[in-house]
Design goal:
four-stranded antiparallel β-sheet, alpha+beta, Chorismate synthase, AroC fold, five-stranded antiparallel β-sheet, 11 helices
Length: 386
């Protein structure tokens, strides 16, 4: 499985082409739209979410509610494009291009690095593609992967662990209840007291023209033992998931299981003891390693966290330098959120879903959904008897 996305933040649309899905996989456009809608929610979101109402158009690879095995093409319209037609024109418009040229890079964005790399004197050619608007396309791809996982009995949940200096108290809940609580919370937090304080902090940051980051957690249950591999660095599933998380715009760190806490503990406090009984087969007494050993799944839930920095577009601008005049200035403001952590949690869920689904189709025959389900069933039975 692989996918490719294309499109700019203020262009006409975002496009996703997905290749490698099994044929005859149940496909619901409504489930893709549901994930896109979740991405647009969350306390602290900016004005763009009032303009766009993301829904997907399915242009290929699906017929009568099932995938055909051919590439699936998805399109998400940018409704705001009508106001940007001249600025984003395909044809040369010298006067408009010069008038709207961006020569002032914003700290924390891709503007300056991308302009130097691709030799752009107008940094809009960088910021349009580097924008987090691109994550809508990745959420659409992840939403398709989730449908594959759901058919295989694999479920995913995500929630916000912290925003700013506020951290939620850990809770031990069934996955379904985690989902319900997160969906009911404006900041996707499972701790009602922390939720109130997070909202207060977001309001405070907005008044000050500032932004907040945080930590999100994704949990995947029902994963079979042995997805990924120990034999090559690029086949380790935990490494792929880590790359997927850090590839999300504004994410700067990732940990699996207890993560960095492991550095402060003794080995006896870190590793998960192996147990066996007739009804469950092999299982771990704890899950400190977040469902992974040796780059492969253990059968315990995958637990991964991502660290999102505060969005760098501030209403109290940071200092920068004009690339033409080399004069200092205060960075310009494009529309921004004061906190996008709850929305980023949805993005994280879906990029993790993609990597797990990809690993599943690598391990099992997957030309058709029936083949995948049959092989998965036999493999689970063998693992239980091992």
């Amino acid at each position: 499985m692989r996918y490719l996305t294309a499109g700019e933040s203020h262009g006409p649309q975002l496009t996703v082409i997905i290749e490698g899905l099994p044929s005859r996989m149940p496909f619901s456009k409504e489930k893709v739209d549901e994930q896109l809608a979740r991405r647009q929610k969350g306390y602290g979101r900016g004005r763009r979410m009032q303009i766009e109402s993301d829904q997907v158009q399915v242009l290929s690879g699906v017929r009568f509610g099932q995938t055909t095995g051919a590439p699936v093409t998805l399109v998400i319209e940018n409704k705001d494009f009508q106001h940007w037609r001249k600025i984003m024109s395909l044809d040369p418009v010298p006067e408009e291009a010069e008038k709207r040229r961006i020569s002032r890079p914003r700290p924390g964005h891709a503007d300056l690095n991308g302009a130097i790399k691709y030799n752009h004197r107008d940094m809009r050619d960088v910021l349009e593609r580097s924008s987090a608007r691109e994550t809508a396309a990745r959420v659409a791809a992840g939403a398709v992967a989730r449908q594959l996982l759901e058919t295989c009995g694999i479920r995913i949940a995500g929630h916000v662990v912290s925003i700013g200096g506020v951290t939620a108290q850990p809770v031990d809940l069934p996955l379904e209840e985690c989902v319900a609580r997160a969906e009911a919370s404006p900041v996707r937090c499972l701790d009602p007291e922390a939720e109130k304080e997070m909202i207060r902090l977001i309001d405070e940051a907005k008044k000050e023209g500032d932004t907040l980051g945080g930590i999100v957690e994704v949990i995947v249950e029902g994963v079979p033992v042995g997805l990924g591999s120990h034999v090559h660095w690029d086949r380790k599933l935990d490494a792929r998931i880590a790359q997927a998380i850090v590839s999300i715009q504004a994410f700067k760190g990732v940990e699996i299981g207890i993560g960095f806490e492991a550095a402060r503990l003794k080995g006896s406090q870190v590793h998960d003891e192996i147990m066996w009984d007739e009804s469950r087969g092999y299982y771990r007494r704890t899950n400190r390693l977040g469902g992974f050993e040796g780059g492969m799944t253990t059968g315990e839930p995958i637990v991964v966290r991502g660290v999102m920095k505060p969005i760098p577009t501030l209403y109290k601008p940071l200092r920068s330098v004009d690339i033409d005049s080399k004069e200092p200035f205060l960075a310009s403001i494009e529309r921004s959120d004061s906190c996008a952590v709850p929305a980023a949690c949805v993005v994280a869920e879906n990029v993790v879903a993609w990597e797990v689904a990809r690993a599943l189709t690598e391990k099992f025959s997957s030309d058709t959904m029936d083949e995948l389900l049959d092989e998965l069933k036999r493999y689970r039975e063998r693992a239980a008897r091992f």
